[in-house]
Amino acid sequence: MIGNLSVPKGNYTLYIWPVSASEMMLIVNKQTGQSGTDYDQGQDLGRVPFKISKTASPVETLAIKLSPSALTFQWENTMATVSVKGK
Fold first, then answer.
1. What CA–CA distance (Å, rounded) separates 2 from 5?
2. CA–CA dist 16, 49 (Å, integer)
3. What pLDDT does residue 87 have?
4. Can you name the residues that pair with 8 across neighbouring β-strands?
5. Cα dist from 48 to 3, 36, 40, 59, 62, whole Å
6. What average pLDDT does this structure show over 22-39?
7. How far apart are CA 24 and CA 64, in angstroms?
């Protein structure tokens, strides 16, 4: 599970879609091997909203962290987190 989206075992491409300054979505796409500009919305498995918060201090380089309970992206002053849970 990523957020409330059931994700079967397999390979996926992840996209971050900034909806607004305070809202972002994680897109789980079934198509792999393409460049970032070859996005096919028809291949989306689903979309999950991130929980947005401020970082404790500025992050100069994009940091991606996966823990047993969350997937987190940090950059500049923004932290975007979505829950994850394995079976």
1. 5
2. 10
3. 72
4. none
5. 6, 19, 17, 23, 20
6. 88
7. 15
Q: What percent of the chain has pLDDT over 90?
A: 83
Give burial (CB, 10 Å; 0-12/13-18/19+) of 11: exposed
Q: Give me 67's structure tokens.
A: 């823990």
Q: Which of 6, 81, 84, 17 is nearest to 45 (CA)?
A: 6
How many CA atoms are closer than 13 Å to the CA of 26, on its beta-carbon side? Answer: 25
Reported confidence tier of residue 37, pLDDT bands at 50, 70, 90: confident
End-to-end CA distance of the chain: 8
Mean pLDDT of the chain: 92
Among residues 78, 83, 47, 50, the alpha carbon closest in space to that of 62 is found at 78
Residue 42 tokens, joined: 């028809």
Q: How far apart are CA 82 and CA 48, in angstroms?
A: 8
